[in-house]
Design a protein that fits this description.
By secondary structure, this protein is an all-alpha fold. 70% of the residues lie in helices and 0% in strands. The chain is built from four helices and no strands.
Amino acid sequence: MREQREALEALAQAAAALAQKIGARPTQELLRRVQDTAQTAASSDPQALREGTLAEELLPAGFDALLGTKVAPARPRPPAAPEPEKDHELATRERRAAEETAHRLAAEAKQAELAASAAQRSAEQARARAEEARKRADAAAAHAADLRKR
């Protein structure tokens, strides 16, 4: 890549010297066109470039070079190979493991439901005790107020 850049730079310098020799001004545009012609010739007509027989300016080939060409349609993909059957023993082990996991999780869910029910009963009992304690506290506060009035 470095060699190519160096060669293009040397070509640009030679073109600039020749342009000055004939009284033309070597502009950046002119030097770019010389380099583009050399690069295009390197891929489209390397023999003429080597021999120094290029007779005209070559434009760089871009996507314009593809216009008018016919592109072959894409080949259809072959159908996908069927997925190989799972080994029967492996499938049986996977099924058993899934069933055991489901059974274990169902048992855990049942235990959690029982614990939730017990917690709910405990919460209801604590609420009832709190209400009873509130009533006793209110009664004691009322009794204390009565005693202060006397």
